[in-house]
């Protein structure tokens, strides 16, 4: 196993261990071919964002309303996000507002610092490479 393969495996296993249960399965977006000692949390964030991996669809009126009541009962944040995306009031419903808010939260909850800290601790020295 090469150093890159070993570190890729360590990194993806750590992502599963640390972040299972999150709305985004971070480990599924790590491209093994692009993974090297210069890989950063920004690379992972961009890979997820390129395929809309942070997007979350909240469907059904009751599910959306419950989410909004728990996360943004004034609707201020979700309406601001809708405005940023160019929605007009007539285009909005609870599912759109909840989905926009959940997607924004997924982006905000991305653990950039933790990921960069873990990546900086990986050993890229080839002295221990297995044959």
- Provide the helix percentage: 40-55%
Strand content: under 5%
Principal-axes geometry comes out as elongated
C-alpha termini separation: 6 Å
By oligomeric state, this entry counts as single chain
Run of helices and strands: HHHHHH
Category by helix and strand content: mainly alpha
Question: Which consecutive residue ranges, at least 5 long each, have pLDDT under 50?
Answer: none
Compute the gyration radius: what is it?
Answer: 19 Å
Question: Tally of extended strands?
Answer: 0
Largest sheet: none
Please tell me the overall pLDDT.
93
So how many helices?
6
Counting structural domains, the number is 1
Explain this structure.
The protein has helices at residues 3-19, 41-50, 61-71, 76-84, 94-108, 112-120. The protein has one domain. Helices cover 54% and strands 0% of the residues. The model has no long low-confidence stretch (mean pLDDT 93). Helix 4 crosses helix 5. The longest helix has 17 residues, at 3-19. It is built from 6 helices and no strands. It has 131 residues and is an all-alpha fold.
Features:
mainly alpha, 6 helices, 0% strand, elongated
What layout of secondary structure does this protein have?
Elements lengths: L2 H17 L21 H10 L10 H11 L4 H9 L9 H15 L3 H9 L11
Helix pairs in contact: 3-5, 4-5
Short recap of the structure:
With 131 residues, this protein is mainly α. It has helices at 3-19, 41-50, 61-71, 76-84, 94-108, 112-120.
